[in-house]
């Protein structure tokens, strides 16, 4: 006997980085314009340790607030800054209307391998400080393949739980290419008492060589079969794009069949692959968002 199963609400979020040049800014805003009709739950903007990078992040977040109906989630790292400096940034975000922060420790500078004296030492401390200061929604990072600096997988999971216990409401994973890695990680997290959503971070591969560098720095593994699909395509961007779309679509579809209903896409400020993946998953442009009105939130699903 068969039963009718209604489709589960499906949500996505998109991550961008602040542009360094006028040309890169034009590319970013073309991507935002292209992806906005999909009505993502939120769009996040990364945040670097350097002063100029932070200013570009603030500018991008403010522009999203002023010129779009999208909900911005501002990344905030606590390295290389005092508690007072971080608190001032958080206050500024709250005052302009930002209600969602992605709280991260950030990478320690090579010339300063320790947290700033008087600053937030770890992401859990930052989460606690943000939640005490304003009623932010706070997302944090999770590492299915263990953070490179963690003593062990158990220690890394303990750190994630500290961030959740401090007030974080969502975890977004580092990108991965083996779905079983993510699924096993979620199972371990649930057994450890972590109940908040653990949203898979998906990296569509626009440049395999660049992605390998990212993977090495974050500890993400690259399955042999995955790498083999990109062999010999260094000088063939059109075929590489087709392969990338096929591989990423298969990864997302497998996760969806496993029960995943929310994805966070690392767009690298490029819209084409991310838009195609959302289409394959059944997400369609919201008429309201396409018309430029209404609140960003949940896209229409076919």
Uncertain residue ranges: 1-8, 290-302
Helical fraction: 40-55%
End-to-end C-alpha gap: 25 Å
Shape: globular
What's the count of strands? Answer: 11
Count of DSSP H/I helices: 11
Strand content: 5-15%
In N-to-C order, the SSE pattern is: EHEHEHEHEHEHEEHHHEHEHE
Radius of gyration of CA atoms, rounded to a whole number: 19 Å
Q: Could you please describe the fold and organization of this structure?
A:
Helix content is 44%, strand content 15%. It has a nine-stranded parallel sheet with strand order 7-6-5-4-3-2-1-9-8, with helices on one face. It is globular. The longest helix has 21 residues, at 237-257. The two termini are 25 Å apart. Mean pLDDT is 87; it is low at 1-8 and 290-302. Helix 3 links the parallel strand 3 (72-77) and strand 4. It has 302 residues and is an alpha/beta fold. Helix 9 packs parallel to helix 10. The chain has helices at 22-35, 51-67, 83-96, 123-133, 153-165, 179-191, 208-218, 224-228, 237-257, 272-280, 287-290, and strands at residues 11-16, 42-45, 72-77, 100-104, 137-142, 170-173, 198-199, 201-202, 262-266, 283-284, 300-301. It contains eleven helices and eleven strands.
């Amino acid at each position: 006997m068969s039963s009718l199963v209604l489709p589960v609400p499906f949500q996505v979020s998109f991550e961008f980085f602040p542009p360094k040049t006028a040309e890169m800014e034009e590319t970013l805003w073309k991507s935002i314009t292209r992806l906005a009709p999909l009505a993502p739950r939120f769009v996040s903007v990364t945040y670097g340790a350097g002063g100029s990078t932070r200013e570009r992040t603030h500018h991008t977040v403010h522009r999203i607030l002023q010129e779009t109906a999208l909900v911005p989630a501002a990344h905030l790292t606590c390295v290389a800054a005092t508690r007072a400096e971080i608190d001032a940034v958080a206050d500024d975000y709250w005052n302009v209307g930002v209600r969602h922060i992605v709280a991260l420790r950030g990478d320690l500078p090579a010339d300063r391998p320790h947290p700033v004296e008087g600053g937030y030492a770890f992401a859990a401390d930052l989460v606690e400080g943000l939640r005490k200061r304003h009623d932010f929604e706070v997302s944090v990072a999770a590492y299915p393949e263990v953070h490179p600096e963690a003593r062990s997988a158990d220690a890394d999971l303990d750190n994630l739980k500290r961030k959740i216990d401090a007030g974080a409401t969502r975890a977004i994973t580092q990108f991965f290419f083996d779905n079983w890695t993510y699924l096993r990680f979620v199972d371990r997290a649930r057994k450890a008492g972590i109940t908040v959503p653990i949203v898979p971070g998906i990296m569509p591969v626009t440049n395999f060589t660049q992605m390998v560098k990212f993977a090495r720095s974050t500890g993400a593994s690259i399955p042999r079969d995955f790498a083999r699909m990109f062999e010999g395509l260094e000088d063939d961007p059109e075929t590489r794009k087709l392969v990338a779309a096929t591989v990423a679509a298969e990864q997302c579809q497998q996760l969806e069949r496993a029960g995943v209903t929310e994805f966070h896409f690392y767009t690298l400020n490029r819209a084409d692959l991310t838009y195609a993946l959302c289409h394959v998953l059944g997400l369609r442009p919201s008429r309201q968002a396409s018309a430029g009105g209404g609140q960003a939130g949940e896209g229409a699903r076919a």
